[in-house]
């Protein structure tokens, strides 16, 4: 516990600083002084480790003497941003000068910095909690299965999100003052600390305080796992394996977390592959471009897990099964050129190696949305060409009495329902209406340019019989075929 003195003649300001410090910094005992005499008495009697000196409290030889004798770490506060104020602060040995107004975080950062310096100075003088006979715990006990070394240790794993910051984390752990000194084992992806399990400590609070202090020192994310298994028959190797497995929970909960386990972590089994029904769902979602249902499916299936968690490996397989459906859709829509291929491979690697499932799902949703948008753009730019080709094909095959939408679908290589939708969107008519228009147009030409009877013309233009042809022709031309021929002939030969 470190003693801290705030000397400030503004009582409310001093109380505010006290509350801020005690609620944010561990292991401090804060006292207040509101005049010069009280300040000197606290300095002499309580010998504070850190002295926060507001210059409005005054200065004198007695105060200078008390500071010189006790040598606290001094933080000076002043409203005067002048050379004289800075010189006075230097003269009394100030390590930090804060000019009002300053942020509360600036004050806290300096206090935490000075506490760590005090901890480093005093670390070598602390009594070691580990007994001499326990100093023979070595790396081999963690990694060798044949090791029979059994001790009642609490395992705490410190896992950074970025492996590159492990050296900083290890140094911070080495200098950090725990109530019980741990045995520290730096590994390639985390650091394991072994604590004497007989210590009566609130491990969760202890680790949350460590995380807060670490965050003040380095803003890189870490995850802390506390293994409180009490099985007396577990070797250090077995407990290490259990602890390592527990750290995989980051896949579901992310970093900046402190989690306790009192028993071995067991994964829940799930089917890693899509069912036939789910495959049909995905085909439907992708064909319809239903982004909302895709997002809902992925969120429901992968972001709502609670303990017991499913095996992360099986979840990754299930995600690759979904990616395979997206891949098939890309092939079927001719969206497999280089740009999308590279992004597809990046998503595949993300599924295999990303450490947090939320990020995988987020990137998968973005990628799927991009695929749907690309298919939509291609359709908008190409459907006009498709319809033009279809109309030309119909002009060559209109005479077939059994000519149907399915024939056109096979020619265009498009789904009949989709093709029917395109006809209406492009021509404002159905396929059948367009076909009838073409047939009637050709029938009019034959009526005017040939002497063929109506029955022959009906057959040559694809109608089932003369009577059906006459009815349809009258609906389109406003008169029967024979009357149309007579009218057109009279107009053609009437002198102008």
Automatic annotation (TrEMBL):
Keyword field contains DNA-binding: yes
InterPro entries: CheY-like_superfamily, Homeodomain-like_sf, HTH_AraC, HTH_AraC-typ_CS, Sig_transdc_resp-reg_receiver, Tscrpt_reg_AraC-type_HTH
PROSITE patterns to which the protein is assigned, alphabetical: HTH_ARAC_FAMILY_1 (PS00041), HTH_ARAC_FAMILY_2 (PS01124), RESPONSE_REGULATORY (PS50110)
Domain Response regulatory: from-to ranges: 3-115
Domain HTH araC/xylS-type: 388-487
Keywords (A to Z) from UniProt: DNA-binding, Transcription, Transcription regulation
RNA-binding listed as a keyword: no
Ranges that cross the membrane: none
Official protein name in the record: Helix-turn-helix domain-containing protein
UniProt organism field: Heyndrickxia vini
């Amino acid at each position: 516990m470190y003693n801290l003195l705030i000397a400030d003649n503004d009582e409310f300001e001093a109380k505010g600083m006290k509350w801020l410090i005690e609620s944010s910094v561990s292991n401090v005992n804060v006292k207040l002084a509101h005049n010069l005499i009280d300040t000197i008495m606290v300095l002499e009697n309580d010998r504070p480790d850190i002295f926060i000196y507001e210059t409005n409290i005054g200065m004198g030889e007695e105060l200078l003497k008390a500071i010189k004798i006790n040598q606290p770490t001094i933080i000076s506060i002043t409203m005067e941003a002048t050379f004289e104020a800075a010189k006075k602060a230097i003269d009394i040995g100030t390590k930090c000068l804060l000019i009002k107004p300053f942020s509360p975080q600036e004050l806290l950062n300096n206090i935490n910095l000075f506490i760590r310096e005090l901890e480093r100075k005093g670390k070598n003088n602390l009594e070691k909690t580990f007994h001499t006979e326990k100093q023979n715990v070595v790396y081999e006990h963690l990694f060798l299965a044949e090791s029979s070394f059994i001790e009642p240790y609490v395992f705490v794993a410190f896992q950074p999100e970025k492996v590159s910051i492990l050296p900083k984390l290890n140094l911070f752990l080495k200098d950090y003052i725990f109530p019980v000194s741990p045995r520290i084992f730096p590994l390639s992806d985390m650091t394991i600390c072994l604590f004497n399990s007989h210590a009566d400590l609130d491990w969760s609070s202890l680790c949350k305080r460590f995380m807060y202090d670490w965050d003040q020192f380095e803003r890189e994310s870490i995850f802390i796992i506390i293994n409180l298994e009490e099985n007396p028959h577990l070797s250090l190797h077995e407990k290490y394996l259990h602890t390592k497995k527990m750290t995989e929970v980051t896949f579901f909960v992310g970093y900046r977390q402190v989690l306790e386990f009192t028993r071995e972590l067991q994964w829940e089994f799930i089917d890693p592959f899509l069912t036939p029904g789910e495959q049909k769902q995905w085909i439907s979602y992708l064909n319809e471009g239903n982004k909302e249902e895709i997002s809902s499916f992925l969120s429901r299936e992968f972001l709502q897990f609670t303990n017991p968690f499913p095996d992360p490996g099986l979840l990754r397989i299930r995600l690759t099964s979904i990616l395979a459906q997206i891949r098939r859709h890309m092939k079927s829509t001719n969206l497999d050129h280089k740009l999308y291929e590279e992004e597809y491979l990046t998503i595949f690697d993300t599924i295999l190696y990303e450490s947090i499932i939320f990020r995988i799902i987020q990137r998968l949703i973005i990628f799927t949305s991009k695929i749907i948008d690309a298919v939509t753009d291609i359709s908008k730019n190409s459907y006009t060409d498709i319809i033009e080709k279809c109309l030309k094909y119909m002009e060559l095959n209109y005479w077939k009495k059994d000519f149907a939408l399915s024939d056109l679908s096979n020619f265009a290589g498009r789904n009949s329902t989709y093709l029917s939708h395109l006809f209406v969107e492009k021509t404002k008519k159905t396929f059948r209406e367009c076909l009838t228009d073409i047939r009637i147009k050709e029938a009019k030409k034959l009526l005017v340019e040939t002497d063929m009877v109506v029955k022959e013309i009906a057959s040559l233009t694809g109608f089932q019989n003369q009577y059906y042809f006459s009815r349809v022709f009258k609906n389109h031309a406003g008169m029967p075929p024979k009357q149309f021929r007579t009218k057109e002939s009279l107009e053609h030969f009437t002198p102008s």
